[in-house]
Amino acid sequence: MRVNSLYSVDAVGDIASGDPEDMPIETAQDRGSSNNCYIKNPVVIPLTATAAVDTPVVDYVSVIRYGKGGDGGVDLDGPPLTIHVIAPDAVPEVLPPAIVAPPEILVLGERKANPKPTLGKTLLLNRVKGTVRVQMPGKPAQLLTGVLIVPNGTIVDATHGVVKVTVAHDANGGLDSVDAWKGSFIAVQIPPTNGNLAETVFTLADPISFAKNGASAAQVHAHSALRSRKRSLWVNGKGNFKTRGKRASAIVRGTYWYTEDVGSSTKVTVKRGLVAVRDFVKKHTVLVSAGHSYTAKVRSHVTRRVPAFNRFGSQALTRMPDAAHGAYPQRYG
Predict the structure, then answer these.
(1) Residue 134 pLDDT more than 70?
(2) Secondary-structure percent of the chain, ordered helix, strand, coil, rounded to 5
(3) What pLDDT was estimated at residue 185?
(4) Are 149 and 122 within 8 A, CB to CB?
(5) How many CB atoms within 10 Å of residue 52?
């Protein structure tokens, strides 16, 4: 039997594997013999069994009938043939290929290089946290909200914030930076001369006035009191930086220090590293290490008595007039 379909069964009704092949059908009846008809037992009859997709899954039994012979007798029944219809394998759904949109091409504008300071001319300021105000020469004060290139002579008020100051330390584009806070200062970078490195100087200054921003009279008065009380600045970083007060300056190559002007004195406190403090009053330089401080003070005037001599050449003591009673000098000889 040749089953020419997707469903193959063998002689015992099991699912046949592989390609369909001839299946013998045997009969016990003796067909006899004659001159023109001789059929051997078993008889191989090619058959084809097909089933539609929606055919119910059951067993189908059929009887093979064959003719008796040439004498016109009744057809004889052959052995029954059982065909098992099995459920077809699930046919995978063939989906149409996905339509992929072409990638979107974005045309970007020209990329701008990050701003950099110019040696001896400009500084780069970047607000780290808090409120930082800046006032460039000849311009009104403004809040620092991001990165800003400013010229020499700019006032930076970091009394209530932290600002990072970045400068170029050589013509090759190398950069140095420090953080500054709790103070206001005028920033100037002195270009290198005679083989010396460029030097960035932070001169202590009064905080930027609030009056231009519509402050009340009480705020202006409180701010003026702060201005007259002291000037100070914390600095932390690396590079050739100097802080300058009224009576002294501190220069470092990388450390953590504090400079404060109080009245007629300037105090430098070192938190880390070594600082060279230049005393403007005594005109000498003092090295201050971590954990120590130095105060430069104005010299106090000392009043000295000048000895007086009488007409006889003897020494006399003179008392100045009494301011309260208008007394005249008295001589003691």
Answers:
(1) yes
(2) 5, 45, 50
(3) 97
(4) yes
(5) 7
